[in-house]
Each structure stands twice: as C-alpha cells, then as structure tokens.
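wait is this the right file?? whatever heres the structure
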C-alpha cells in the first residue's frame, strides 16, 4: 500500500469514529417545576398590608384634623371688620348680623341685595341684569363682556360683588301703606297711557228738544304713526255716536275719528290728530307697554286693573290672575280669556297690567257667567297684538266665516282625523257656506300655507285682505276615509 491509501484509510476511520461518538452521547433534558404556593405566607402578607393601610389612614385623618384649622385660617382669613348694629326705631328696621339671621327660625324675612364698589354714575348693575331678566320678567343672556368706547367688545369681564343681608322684622301698618303706595305708583305710571273716550250722540225728546247722549269708557294709547295718536277702545260706545272725544291723563280733551274696528272683540282703533295736540299733552301721556301672556306660569300672578274697572273713571283695583285656560271662539279666530279675582263692575273697561306696568289683558266683561259677572276678565294681549297692528294700519279684517278649533291628538289617533283647523260651525251666508264648506270639515291648506292647527288658520287669515281670491283645501269624511276637496273662495270683509 502506498502512502495515499494509508492516509485515506485513516481519514475514513476517524469519520466513522466521530459518527459513533455522536450517537453514543446525548444532552440531558431538564423539566423545571414551579415552586409550590405557601398559603400561610400569603395570608400573613395580606394581613400585614391591611394593617399598614389602616395605620396610614389613621395617621392621615389625625394629620388632617390637626392641620385643618391652620390651613383654613391661612386660605380663608377671617374679616375682623365689626358689624355695626343699630337700635330699631319707628322708621328703621332692626339689623341682624349674618350669624343671628342664619340661626333664626322666623319665616318673616326680607332679603336685601346691595352692591359694593359701586359708583353713582357708572359701573352700576341692576338686579334684573344680575338675574338675567328684563323688565318684562323674561330671561336674557348675561352680558359678561364689557364694551369699549368704540362699541367693540372688550376682553375684561365685568365683575359684580354682592353682599346679601337678611333683615328680620315684624311687618307694621306702615309697611302695608308703603306697599300700596308703590302699587299706586305703578298704576299711575301705566295710567299715562289710559284715556277716557266719550261717544256723543244728539237726539230729540217728545217735545222736539235736542239733548245729548254720552257713553263713556276707558281707552288705551297703543301707537302713533307720526300723524295720529292711535287709541284702542270699545266699539259699542262709539259706533252710533255723532262725535268722539278723548280726554287724556292731563285733563285735556280732543276730537277723535274712527279708524277701524273688530266686531269679534268689540274693539276699535280711533285716532287723534297729533298736530292739534299740545306739547304738554304729548309729554304727559305715553304709549302703552304690552306684555306677554304665553307663559304657563301666569296663573297666580298679581295684577292691577286700571281705567274703569269699578264703574268710575280713573279707578284701580288689585288682585291676581286665577285662570287663563278659557278660550272664546269667534268667527275665523279665538282668544284666551284671563280671569281674575278682582270684583268690579259688570260694565267695566280698561286693561289688566302686571307689577311692571305692562298690559296683559284688555277688559271684556261680555260672555261672563251670571254667577261671576262682576269678576274682572279680559282678552289676553298676546292674542290681540297682530290684530291691533292690522287695525292701527287702517286695514280691514278678511272674512271666511267659520268657527273652529284644534284637532286634538286623541281624535287624530283614535278616529284618524287629519291635523288642521276643525270646522265646528259655518256662519250663515258667509263665503265659506256659499262655497260649500260644511261642519266637520278640516281645513288643511289656505292658499299655499299648510294648516296644522286653528292657530295656523287664524294667523294665515290675518295676512289676507278682503276680496282676495283664496284656494281653501279641506278634508271631509267619506264612507271609509277622509277625502281632500279644494274650493276657490273670494274672501269677504268682517262687519257687524
């Protein structure tokens, strides 16, 4: 054998030996087991943690109780200013300190709100502005940003600091006297918008002697158009008169002329020529401020009746609104009736005002029940505003000739009555009757205006004019369901 063969043989033997060693030796595989849980030790740790938590809580409470007076005095320093107390006199109420006021159990308390850091001429804020209410008692947004001299909004908020003091005292007769004096001031200020309207008519007696009939009622100054002073009064007092006279709050008397009237409510607008009125009279009187009666909280509101509520010109009476749920149905419209507990004349006239002097109702005793004919009642002013505006502008009231009401949700759901103005009655010889509208019809459209309630209907009618050609769409009950019908109707003019 040569040397290469020997080397090759030795190499093969080494390779076989290495393979044999790999097969004979293997790595050891271990399995690691989790250490068993020591329950006793775990319980001890839990108990130890709870004890530490309780100890920490006790220490924290003790520290808080000990340091609270110190930090409270530091964060809220006590004002050491002395409170001055005055001995009560006949004219001054006793002043009670805040601590005494807070400990009192007497219900007869009067809260006073006073502003500090307030100058006489500027930076004053009224209580109405603080509470977000205007003079009508309606909510307004608070103005939190001051306006600069140029009218632009500034960046500094207006800060108002208040002190509320509670004064405890027994009411005396002088307090009631002052209260009624203040109510009288409200009535006198609102009375500047009241006038006395006299209708004069001439007649002859059996002996051919001429004499005058005078009918008197209260009137209300509602507007002026630059040429005339417009006054609201009762139609029945002046409709047969030969002449109309108006006496203003300063006692001066001027002739007036009829403008327009509303037969539904027995109301008319008369006009006094401004060029004939003296400047003193113009300054003495004022336009009436109209309030709102749409709020559901109007029941129980204290009110004052002024004008002629007691059968005496210039009288006043006080009470409260007892109800505003009654509605009087009239031709093509309706109006809410305000009832009060004020005992007055069955022929009363005038207006009902609130404590701010704003007109809430126009007195109308017609239609009162026999057992309550002397209780003052009137039309809610919110239902009259649009109509008064139309009469003041010299416009006639359009006339279709129905008496209607709303379709209730119960009727709509139970009987399938469509929503709209339900026709309860059709006036004889009215445009509605001549066109063919019947009792039980539901008006759903007036021209291009959709009608979903009787309020929609009367608002749409107020926008119409006599002799307008109007397409009236109604739904009438057929054999199985309501059928839609349309009528082209020429509107008439509402008259006596």
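ok assuming it is, sequence goes like this
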């Amino acid at each position: 054998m040569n040397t290469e063969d020997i080397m090759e043989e030795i190499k093969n033997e080494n390779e076989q030996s290495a393979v044999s060693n790999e097969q004979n030796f293997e790595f050891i595989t271990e399995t690691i087991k989790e250490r068993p849980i020591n329950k006793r030790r775990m319980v001890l740790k839990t108990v130890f943690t709870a004890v530490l938590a309780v100890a920490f809580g006790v220490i924290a409470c003790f520290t808080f109780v000990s340091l609270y007076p110190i930090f409270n005095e530091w964060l809220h320093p006590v004002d050491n200013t002395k409170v001055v107390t005055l001995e009560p006199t006949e004219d001054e109420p006793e002043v009670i300190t805040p601590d005494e006021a807070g400990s009192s159990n007497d219900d007869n308390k009067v809260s006073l709100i006073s502003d500090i850091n307030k100058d006489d001429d500027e930076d004053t804020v009224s209580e109405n502005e603080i509470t977000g209410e205007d003079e009508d008692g309606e909510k307004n947004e608070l103005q939190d940003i001051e306006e600069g001299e140029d009218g632009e909004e500034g960046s500094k908020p207006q800060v108002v600091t208040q002190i509320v003091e509670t004064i405890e005292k027994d009411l005396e007769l002088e307090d009631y006297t002052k209260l009624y004096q203040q109510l009288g001031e409200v009535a006198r200020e609102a009375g500047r918008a009241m006038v006395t309207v006299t209708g004069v008519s001439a007649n002859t007696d059996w002996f051919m002697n001429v004499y005058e009939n005078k009918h008197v009622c209260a009137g209300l100054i509602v507007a002026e158009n630059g040429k005339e002073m417009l006054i609201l009064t009762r139609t029945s007092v002046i409709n047969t008169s030969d002449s109309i006279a108006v006496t203003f709050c300063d006692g001066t008397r001027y002739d007036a002329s009829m403008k327009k009237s509303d037969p539904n409510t027995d109301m008319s607008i008369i006009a006094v020529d401004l060029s004939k009125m003296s400047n003193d009279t113009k300054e003495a009187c004022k336009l009436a401020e109209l309030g709102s009666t749409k709020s559901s909280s109007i029941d129980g509101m204290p009110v004052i009746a002024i004008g002629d509520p007691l059968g005496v010109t210039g009288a006043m009476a006080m009470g409260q609104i007892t109800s505003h749920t009654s509605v009087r149905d009239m031709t093509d419209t309706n109006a809410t009736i305000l009832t009060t507990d004020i005992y007055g004349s069955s022929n009363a006239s005038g207006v009902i005002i609130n404590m701010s002097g704003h007109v809430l109702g126009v007195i109308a005793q017609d239609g009162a029940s026999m057992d309550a004919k002397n209780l003052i009642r009137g039309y809610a002013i919110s239902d009259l505003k649009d109509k008064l505006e139309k009469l003041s502008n010299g416009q006639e009231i359009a006339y279709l000739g129905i008496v209607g009401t709303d379709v209730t949700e119960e009727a709509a759901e139970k009987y399938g009555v469509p929503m709209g103005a339900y026709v309860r009655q059709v006036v004889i010889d009215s445009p509605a009757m001549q066109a063919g509208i019947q009792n039980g019809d539901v008006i759903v459209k007036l021209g291009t205006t959709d009608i979903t309630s009787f309020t929609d209907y009367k608002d749409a009618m107020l926008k119409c004019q006599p002799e307008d050609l109007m397409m009236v769409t109604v739904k009438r009950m057929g054999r199985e369901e309501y059928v839609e019908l349309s009528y082209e109707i020429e509107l008439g003019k509402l008259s006596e």
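Confidence is low (pLDDT under 50) at residues 79-157. so i think its the right one actually
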